[in-house]
Amino acid sequence: MRIFLVFSLLFLGFITACGSDTRDHESATDGGNASAAATDSTPAAEPASATPSNPMQRAELGYHPDPALKKQLQAELLDIATTRKQNESDEQIPAMINELTSLFRSLSVTARALDRHGDFQKEINTEISRFRQAEVEKTDDAAKIMNAMSGVYQMYALLAKMKFLGQPEKQEEIQKINDITVQNLRPGSQAVEAAASIADACYNLTSMIMQDIDSENRFAKAFEQIERQYQQGIRVAKKEEDHYINGMFRTFEVSQLWALSLNPEREKDVAKMNKGVSDESAEAETVGTQMNVATRYLFFISYIIAEDTVELTL
Question: What global pTM score does this model have?
């Protein structure tokens, strides 16, 4: 697979960037194929927009008006959507770079909106600066992919650390996930292992965050089903690419619950995304295409999480 041949060219550079830090809607998948994800609930071909208006939601999130930051992050979201549209490509590798980059930027908006007291401002800014500098310096496709994958992982790790600030046991869990990820990114490992390891980390970190958000266990059955599909995907996976697809699709499904917990009005958007995943997965003829489907839809759901987090918290 050409994507992973490209990955392998800059694998050691990725280890340096990524391994240095220690820091009731159910989805159903095709259990017989780790590369397929058919859900019952389209994408909107572009990120959808909705404005949550429930005052209680705002209060629960610790609403802290910051008009200047809100305006800045809304402008960033608009730029993300515009830039992603401009960089759309029918070629697998440029498409993967575009989706991963857009995903990283969306996650960084969510992180900045949630960091209301500035406890992680330095870390967030450092990661954004590292990402931007690497974008300029790294001109080949392999470097760009590794830079984006590194940024996505680091941003998920930062979001988890922010969520569990002051909770040593949870911070230790996050560190364990990091240690496993770094171990799988050791020198000599294949690049496909790097991608699979990052997808697993994204799933585990997102699950930690969302299960804490779901303190009333409204999504308990959905969590159980997603975890079953994740474990089944691991069992039937025949290659590391399958593990990447499995991890990214399950992260997408958990992120649906995150989006709906923020704004139940997103139900139609989530339903559209799930239909889109089902349709596009069924049509995917190569592993690379399926990888792009998984990454693209994780971007879609992460974008609306960022939109609603900005609206509800600032």
Answer: 0.83
